[in-house]
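Worked example (supplementary).
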Amino acid sequence: MNTKQIAEMLDGVLAGNPDTEIRRFAEIQHAAGDEITFISNPAYTKYFETTNAGAVIVSQNFKPPSKRQDITLIKVEDPYMCFVTMLEFFSKDSHPIEKGISDRCVIGKDAVIGKDVHIGDFTVIGKDCLVGDSSVIMDNVTIGDGVVIGKNSVVNSSVVIYHGCRIGDNVIIHSGTVIGSDGFGFARSKEGKYRKIPQTGIVVIEDDVEIGSNCCIDRATIGETKICRGAKLDNQIQIAHNVEIGEDTVIVSQAGIAGSTKIGKRCMIGGQAGIVGHLTICDDVIIGASVGVTKSIDKPGTYMGYRSKPFKDALKDEASVKEIPSIKERIKLIESIINKGK
Amino acid sequence: MNTKQIAEMLDGVLAGNPDTEIRRFAEIQHAAGDEITFISNPAYTKYFETTNAGAVIVSQNFKPPSKRQDITLIKVEDPYMCFVTMLEFFSKDSHPIEKGISDRCVIGKDAVIGKDVHIGDFTVIGKDCLVGDSSVIMDNVTIGDGVVIGKNSVVNSSVVIYHGCRIGDNVIIHSGTVIGSDGFGFARSKEGKYRKIPQTGIVVIEDDVEIGSNCCIDRATIGETKICRGAKLDNQIQIAHNVEIGEDTVIVSQAGIAGSTKIGKRCMIGGQAGIVGHLTICDDVIIGASVGVTKSIDKPGTYMGYRSKPFKDALKDEASVKEIPSIKERIKLIESIINKGK
Amino acid sequence: MNTKQIAEMLDGVLAGNPDTEIRRFAEIQHAAGDEITFISNPAYTKYFETTNAGAVIVSQNFKPPSKRQDITLIKVEDPYMCFVTMLEFFSKDSHPIEKGISDRCVIGKDAVIGKDVHIGDFTVIGKDCLVGDSSVIMDNVTIGDGVVIGKNSVVNSSVVIYHGCRIGDNVIIHSGTVIGSDGFGFARSKEGKYRKIPQTGIVVIEDDVEIGSNCCIDRATIGETKICRGAKLDNQIQIAHNVEIGEDTVIVSQAGIAGSTKIGKRCMIGGQAGIVGHLTICDDVIIGASVGVTKSIDKPGTYMGYRSKPFKDALKDEASVKEIPSIKERIKLIESIINKGK
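After joint prediction of all chains, the assembly is encoded as:
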């Protein structure tokens, strides 16, 4: 594909050689003459002078820090989105899966497998399962009885989905993730012994959700634990029983959401954040990394610091602590003045 | 089962229709006429007026917020425990496992498998293992040589138990959990290179323990890492080498306990809490969520905040910080008075 | 092996019986007459009077707290390193693996398997893989197409390595760890919907690295996520896309490193620490447990507390907060004096 064709594909304006043949996408620092790269974050403009890339995608108002006659520019409205488009284009078919149902997998009684489905080696599909058309279930996966998986979804190796859970269309689940294991529920007797509360509900993962590796999403005590359409979860996230994660909400790795908490739409939960149980977080809330949330939030905005103070309060408290030594100095001075006056 | 029979089963007093047929347990907001629900937490009393439940389990002194002739009440001493009893009753046999030893599993030489055991597909049981009567080992599980598993225990899919570890009776281990991998031990040379310290011990899980998904319980360097009888661990918990968790202690998800720390009986460790190595935590200690514990604790009680201050101290420190701005105002006023007086 | 032979092996000086037969290494509290133990940390000297060990490895200047004619001392320069040597000696061959390639594994087309390799049951090796001589791949492992594994490495059960990743020589990877799953990258549209950014890179694990259980190391968006020679990672660690971990750096369990961050050589990252993305941490930095690092660090040293203050600053801030109540008392006194003077 040459630079002219790329400019057309991206709806961009070409400045330079329209005939440079481009074979790959690359980082600006490492790109070679048959590779294309991009500048979106101004911090990367400094690499413009030294890059060996054959072409660079830039914004319409990009000012080159130096003349580089040898580089072809493709000016576009949104270089970042065009970077994604290019990456998609060049990575398409880069790792094709030869689809088919392994003769070393086990498919339970009355399970229904759609068209064009892949089921890998040593994978177990339980009784009465449904797997929709074009879905891919990789190797060493365990899927319990009665699980429903939609169309065009990907379940990577070593995933476990317990019985009865429901997975939508276009869902991606990465390796080692466990969906539908028992929620953590015990009734404590007067003697301090624990009695297990049966976890009789399920997990529902709606369409277009992506879940990273080694996550845990527990089944509900009664009813459903629910990850709504379009939500994206990073690795090692803990979702407790009866939690609901709203549409298009993003959760960064190692965060944990305790039981029965409901999180709204389009929220962003930072890495290692913790949200206690039985809370309601409204739509469009941003929780900072490592923040502990102990109260419901009913106003959109950014919340930071221990116990999820609004961002400004967190900064103010931190600055306050820094002033204590100077406060002490001033008091000492006052005390000495008063003592002299006596 | 009708409401009269349920009242008898729960040792409760029936007020209303003794003949209502009940088929399921349900949440009060969603219950239908053939479903029973409960009110234990007063926050749920508000749903009493609108619930469609056929019967509601309530405490002996429950005062209905409104007359509902159509609802049958079952008055009991402890509605929460009765809720668990009902849930157990209705969930029993809801997901039976057809027991048997798969012909697609591998059982090592000299392994002894008890009566009425289930071993799933693609599961590997090592040499010289013992699996007690009525235990269930699901699919894609890997159990190393010489592992002992007691009676009536459940090892879910994709669990790995390394060689030599011992699991008791009535233990439940959820998917993705790894028991007995090497503790994190390296000796640092003067040049800053690391030499692995062999981890020669084992993990012992006593009776009645439940362990969630994707936990890690490391084998001891020498001796045993031990989870004592009745302890309950949530998901994604890290237990380092030579740790001991006391009887009936509960640990919430994503907490981590560093090497050689001993935790007493009936403790509760909050989610994402971290306890550093070589500490001793006495019986009946509650550690708040996300708390970092850096010193041994020898007094029962509740510990909160960064570095596990006792709860009251944590609240006091937090309140103190809030007062700094007003302290500054007062000093400024004093300084202006003194300056005027000069 | 008798005590005389051990003293020679450790290049130590024997004081006591040269003929005591030693069969095992043991902890000082539990050692028996045919077992050897060591004292390195003075906190364990108190056990000297009561231990039943046949021999104790001590430092050259060790002063016995009491006369124990029955105990043989072996005086050495570095008792801790000698403890490791002894543990290695006695644990060698304690758990031998009978090597071989299971007839229940799957090896993809054009994969090349070296000499003396072990491949366990229900393990899948993809197409075009290379597995170097003497490496051990345990059971239920899934290795994607084109993965390269060096010599003498160990991949434990239930590990997943996605396509194209490269693992060096003498690497140990513990169970449940996922290497090469997709980095967490999405482009947000103006409407708040997310579009997946293809993750086209790989993960490179260099020689002599050890990785604990249930870790996640994501593949790069473009290029490589890299764990450099000799680095040691504990359990449940999250390494995001395009991160680089320097040589001989140690990371304790449950820490998370966000995307594109570079960590230097010989660093120590505490448990549950979190490091945000796009930072550079220089060589020889120590980050305390649970610390959140939000800025690059360019000076070696120890960093503690929320937002990774240098250790001294963290202690100072903490002490400052404790002084607020006394500051308030002093101001109150001053105010009363001033008011009286009016």
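Two points are worth noting when inspecting this output. The longest strand of chain A covers residues 55-59. Chain A has two domains: 3-91, 106-314.
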